[in-house]
Amino acid sequence: MPQSTHSDFGDTASVSSDAISLSTTASTAGNSLLSRLRKARSIGDQLHDVKAISISDLPAELDDFPKLQTRASTYVPEEWVHRGRSHTSWICFHGCYVVKLGPANQDQGSFWICGEKQCDGIYSADSTSGATKHLNKKHRLFEKEEPEDEQSKKRAKQSVIIL
Ligand SMILES: [Zn+2]
C-alpha cells in the first residue's frame, strides 16, 4: 500500500513546522500502526476536541490531561497549566496558546497552535508575527480586513510565482 502519511505536512508554509516534520521523520519509522494513526490527525483538529473540554472537568494530575500530540512533541493548552496568564491578540480567535511538555511533563515553553482544520501550524509564542504571517498567507485570515491594494499586489505576485 502506498505511503501517504506525510501529505498533511506537505503544504505547510512555515519554517517552524517544516523543522518539526523534518526532525521527526526518522524517529517515526519504527512506530506502531496505532501510534501512527493517533498522530495522523492534524494539530488543528486535535485542538478542536481539546478546547471542548472545560477546565473544571480536567483530571487532577497533569499526567492524565488530554494532550495534543505531533510526531515530535506533546502540548496542552496554556490556560490549563498557567491559569492566570491571558493573551489578548486576535490570533487567539484562530488558534490556541499551548505549553510544550517534556518527557516528564515539564514546561518547555509556550507556542501558538493554529486551530484551522487540517492544519499543523505551530509557532513560537514570543511574538505574534509568525502566527500572523501564517494566518494571512495560508488561511487568508487578517486582523482587520485586508486593504484593497494589498490584495491586488498579492494576486499579482502569486501569478508570477505560478508562471
Ligand atoms: Zn493554519
Q: What are its keywords?
A:
binds zinc ion, alpha+beta, elongated, 163 residues, five-stranded antiparallel sheet
Brief digest:
By secondary structure, the protein is α+β, with helices and mostly antiparallel strands.
Question: Helices, strands, pairings?
Answer:
Layout: H1 15-25, H2 33-40, H3 43-51, E1 68-69, E2 74-77, H4 78-81, E3 95-101, E4 107-114, E5 122-124, H5 129-139, H6 148-162
Antiparallel strand pairs: 1-2, 2-3, 3-4, 4-5
Bound molecules: zinc ion.
Region (Disordered): 143-163
Describe the protein:
This protein is α+β, with helices and mostly antiparallel strands. The chain has one domain. It contains six helices and five strands, in the order αααββαβββαα. It has helices at residues 15-25, 33-40, 43-51, 78-81, 129-139, 148-162; strands spanning 68-69, 74-77, 95-101, 107-114, 122-124. The protein has a five-stranded antiparallel β-sheet with strand order 1-2-3-4-5. β4 and β5 form a beta hairpin. The longest helix is centred in the C-terminal third of the chain and has 15 residues, at 148-162. The radius of gyration is 17 Å and the shape is elongated. The protein starts with 14 loop residues before the first helix and ends with a helix.
